[in-house]
Amino acid sequence: MAECKSEPMALRDGAVAVIDALGFKGIWNRVPDPRVVIAKLEELRHTVEFFEHPRLGPDGNEYPAPVRSRFFSDGIVITATVEDVRPVRQITTLGEAVDAVARAALLTIVAGAGRAPTTYGETPPLLYRGCIAAGKILAKGDFFVGSAIDEAAEWSQKADAAIIWLLPSARSALGAAAPEHLVFEWDVPLKGHSSPLSALVLNPLGRSDSPSHWRETMENLDRTIMGSFDEKLPVEVEIKKQNTRRALDAARAATQRWFESQGDQ
C-alpha cells in the first residue's frame, strides 16, 4: 500500500479542542489498581483514533486524516485543519473543521463518563472539561502551535463545570451551520469572572437517535457524571458539581426541544 503523503510545515485555518479530566490529580492513589486508569485512557485514545484513520484518495494513495490528537496524561488536544490541494478533502471550511473537532470531543465526553469492566476492575469515569477555538494552527507530528492553540489553552480550564464549550472564534466559524442537536446555548460560569458567558456547549446527549435513547442516555450520564462527585466536597468542587448539574439539565431540555421540533416526543 502506498505511503501517506507528507505535508509542508505551515499554519493553516483550523480548529482545536484542549480538554482535560476534572479531579484527575491523585487518581493513582484513589483506585485499587492503576491499570484500570491506563485501560480507561487507552479506551479514550481508541475513541479519538476513529477520526484519524488515513483516507484513500482517487489516485490510490493514502492521505492523513484532517483530525489529529495527542494525549498527555489526562489532557487531550484534538485538531482539524482546512485542506487545500489534497485529493481527499473532507474539510474545506473553518466551520467544518470546528464541527469535526466538536464531534471527536463529544465522543470523548460520552466515553469518558462511562464505566467498563476489565480484568483489573471497573474503569473509573472521567469528566472532561475544556473548550474549542478556531483560527490559525499547525498540527503535525509533535507540533501543535498557532493562535487558536494558544487561545484554547488559555481558556481550557476556565469553565467551572464539566463541559466543553465553544469560544467565540469557534462559534463564529460555525455560524448558522451550528448543528442544533450537538450543541446547546448556556450561560457558562467562568472562574475569576463575576458574570457567566453565553456560549455554545457540546451536548452529551446529541448523538442520541430517538427520544427513548436519549432518555436512557440521560439516566446513565446522571449516574456516572453526578455519581463521580463525592458526597462531601470542598466548596470549590461543590460549585463545579452544581454547575455540572445545571449543564446536564440544560442539555436535557435542549435535546427535548430538538426531538419535538422533529416531530418526535
Can I get a quick summary?
The protein is α+β, with helices and mostly antiparallel strands and 265 residues long. The protein is built from seven helices and twelve strands.
Overview of the molecule:
The chain is an alpha+beta fold. The protein has one domain: 2-Layer Sandwich (Alpha-Beta Plaits), CATH 3.30.70.1230. It is 37% helix and 23% strand. The chain contains 7 helices and 12 strands. The strands form 4 sheets. Strands 1, 4, 5, 8, 9 and 10 form a 6-stranded mixed sheet that branches. It is globular. The relative contact order is 0.15.
What can be said about the biggest beta sheet?
Answer: 6 strands, mixed
Distance between the termini: 49 Å
- CATH domain fold name: Alpha-Beta Plaits
| Fraction in helix | 25-40%
What portion of residues belong to β-strands? 15-25%
Q: Please, what is the average pLDDT? A: 84
- Under the CATH scheme, the architecture is 2-Layer Sandwich
How many helices?
Answer: 7
Radius of gyration: 19 Å
Domain tally? 1
Q: What structural class should be given to the helix and strand makeup?
A: alpha+beta
- Inertia-based shape: globular
Low-confidence stretches: none
User: Which class in CATH terms?
Assistant: Alpha Beta
* CATH 4th-level superfamily: Nucleotide cyclase, GGDEF domain
